[in-house]
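Weekly structure sync, notes
Attendees: PL (lead), two postdocs, one rotation student
Agenda item 3: pending single-chain targets
PL asked that the sequence for the first pending target be pasted directly into the notes so everyone works from the same version. It is reproduced below exactly as submitted, 74 residues in total.
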Amino acid sequence: MGRLQEGINYDQADLPGERQTASAEACAELCLETPQCMAMTYVKSLRGCWLKSRVPASLSGTDYVSSVRHISGR
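Predicted structure, written out during the meeting:
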């Protein structure tokens, strides 16, 4: 995964289902373990982890942490 981006929310392109994780780092690890995941957004107040099927447009907000998956060879 790329670096964690504080204050960024990747809006839309959610893979089905919200996951609960203890941290943004754990959410990023879950993304790495999910072949369809291209990006993730973690909602701090909900401990919600949203995996993304692509890298959608981003919004800003203090409750969010996001990251983009790096693809080997690119």
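Discussion points:
- Strands lie at 5-10, 19-20, 39-43, 48-52, 58-68.
- The longest helix spans residues 24-33.
Action: rotation student to compare against the earlier draft before next sync.
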